[in-house]
Amino acid sequence: MNITIFLGAGASAAENLPIQNELFSQYFKYILPKNKNARMNKELAKFFKDLFFIDVINEDVENINFPTFEEVLGVLDLAEQKGESFKNYKSEDSYNDNNTSISYIRQSLIMLTAYALNNATSGSNNYHQLLLSNLIKDDMLKNTTFISANYDIHIDNAIANLYDERNFPVMLNYGIDFSNFNFSKNSWQRPVEQMINLYKIHGSLNWLYCPICNSITLTPFEGGIMRIIENIKQAKCLNCGELTVPIIVPPTYFKNMSNVFLSTVWNKSERVLRESDVLVFCGYSFPEADMHIKYLLKRVQTSRLKENLKVIVVNNHSKKRNSLREKEKNRYERFLGKDVIYTKYSFEEFANNPKKVIDLVK
Length: 362
Prior knowledge:
Layout: E1 3-7, H1 9-13, H2 23-31, H3 39-52, H4 69-82, E2 89-90, E3 100-101, H5 102-118, H6 126-137, E4 144-148, H7 154-160, E5 171-173, E6 195-200, E7 203-210, E8 215-218, H8 227-230, E9 245-248, H9 260-275, E10 278-282, H10 291-301, E11 310-314, H11 322-336, E12 341-342, H12 347-352, H13 354-358
Parallel strand pairs: 1-4, 1-10, 2-3, 4-6, 5-6, 10-11, 11-12
Antiparallel strand pairs: 7-8, 7-9
Helix pairs in contact: 2-5, 4-5, 9-10
């Protein structure tokens, strides 16, 4: 049986990472106060005050009703698409020092996301490791592919840490070629059979993209995006030495998937889903904004030569209200069909016994 496990934000939340609607409060409460005078922090504080009338410096952050990420990025993306501006925020860089470019604020919001995730409990990787251990125990891991919509590197590190040249020579494969492969001194080698495929469809904290030579560098076991702010000299391209930028697709209604490496990842995700027997959604609520994922799934559903893809949803937690569960179940069934197996299991329970959940399709 070929298995695909799709990891959403709920899987990362099990490792104490903030979910999307907590990112602003986490950042402005714990990270901004450490360096209020940094340009990015000053500009973000001004931006929230100007556009959303929120004073992140003087107000009690815990009691602020922040707009969603989709709302904040959505208005910025629309302004850029329409070539329009907000007062003091121009759609293009301006020679007027009193104006901040919308693209700078947008990039700062992406870095805010990276900071909030990178500064969360990085050592907590228990459930991802537990899931892999149990998949190995049940002899299922080698037939399993992971697709992740998350930027964090919990599942990456859990897979990479499995490698043992003598006893378990299975390598992590992201499905793309990194500059690292061309440098023998680098610790990250090109994966060879046998591989565990991990396709990160929204980018990753450990990917650094060079727009000059169109290459990508991997920073193994490290959220390398942080180098761009904290140690810019360490964020240079391995091939040409120019500065790199993040590959992070933020949560917005207008997702840009044009990057060549992301396109490759999406193509491989579609291919593996065509060959999968069962797809397990973990910690994913099937949000309205993720139209790209819905498009991918509908393409797969309507063009498979094999029998219909079996879909299992694992997205419960102890504080989840029944009304939310019903709405979520309806979203899945409305789009994917009534055969979706919507369970009451949490990601933690799935990690503890994946076979029990996957056997539901039999």
